[in-house]
Specification:
Layout: E1 2-3, E2 7-8, H1 24-42, H2 45-50, E3 53-64, E4 75-83, E5 87-96, E6 99-112, H3 123-129
Antiparallel strand pairs: 1-4, 2-4, 3-6, 4-5, 5-6
């Protein structure tokens, strides 16, 4: 699994929905931000743009356990759980003081931004996701 260092988030007033609880849109935005950070670190934002390649989410599942409210500072732990030739799975887990709050799982594929057709996963991401062989001396 390719993971990013955990990040502490700040709930803002515009993250709130009905009942002063963090909205679904905020969780999706935070998940997308984490995915793009990892892609920028591994592949490089410039290389994605030059190669006309972007991730496209085709399925999102969110499981909420506890509500988040204004001024909470949740942590997000996120990463690519699966990386294939054209497809990926991405998981973001949100916690508050170590307590699980929500989990977002996304499946998607990489697309060519000009033709909108599926394209290969960027090579650097595939290499980073490849299992490493253990060598014993």
């Amino acid at each position: 699994m390719i993971v990013a260092p955990s990040r502490t988030l700040q709930v803002r007033s515009y993250d709130l929905g009905l009942g002063d609880v963090v909205s679904q849109e905020a969780f999706l935005r935070w998940t997308s931000d984490a995915m793009h950070e990892i892609l920028s670190d591994i592949v490089g934002a410039e290389r994605l743009v030059e190669g006309f390649t972007m991730p496209m989410t085709v399925e999102t599942r969110t499981m909420h356990r506890e509500p988040l409210r204004f001024l909470d500072r949740p942590e997000v732990h996120a990463g690519f759980s699966k990386v294939g030739a054209t497809r990926f799975e991405f998981v973001a887990k949100f916690t508050l003081h170590g307590i699980p709050i929500a989990e977002v799982k996304q499946r998607g594929l990489f697309v060519d931004t000009v033709s909108h057709a599926p394209t290969r996963t960027p090579e650097r991401l595939r290499e980073a996701a490849a299992p490493r062989a253990l060598v014993y001396a």
